[in-house]
Amino acid sequence: MSDFDLNEITRHLREIQKNVPKRENETHQNETIYLDFAKWHNCLFENCRIIIEYGYFSLVGCNFIKCGFESPTGSPAYAILTVNNLLKENKTK
């Protein structure tokens, strides 16, 4: 197993975050949208297919109307959702 340098990972993520595009005041209708690697501000999504693969995005003041959300099997976001669901199931037992 390899060692992880948390400071190096944090520095790298901050560098990536500086370059993430900001999408503002957009309206999306009947589209397939990949949320990853963007900062979404005050956007409207209506009847869209929303795909999240990595979970690296931000939403501020966005609205979703009749949208479906997906995380492809095997993606990092799917793995997180799977673990989250397992933890929820364990709490209810």
Question: Can you describe what's shown?
Answer:
- The chain has helices at residues 6-18, 76-92, and strands at 22-24, 27-29, 32-34, 39-41, 44-46, 49-51, 58-60, 63-65, 68-70.
- The chain is of the alpha/beta class and 93 residues long.
- The protein has one domain.
- The strands form 3 sheets. The chain has a 3-stranded parallel beta sheet, with no helix packed on it.
Quick summary:
The protein has 93 residues and is α/β, with parallel strands linked by helices. It has helices at 6-18, 76-92, and strands at residues 22-24, 27-29, 32-34, 39-41, 44-46, 49-51, 58-60, 63-65, 68-70.
Integer-rounded radius of gyration:
16 Å
Percent helix: 25-40%
Query: So what's the overall shape?
Result: flat
Largest sheet: 3 strands, parallel
Number of domains in the coordinates? 1
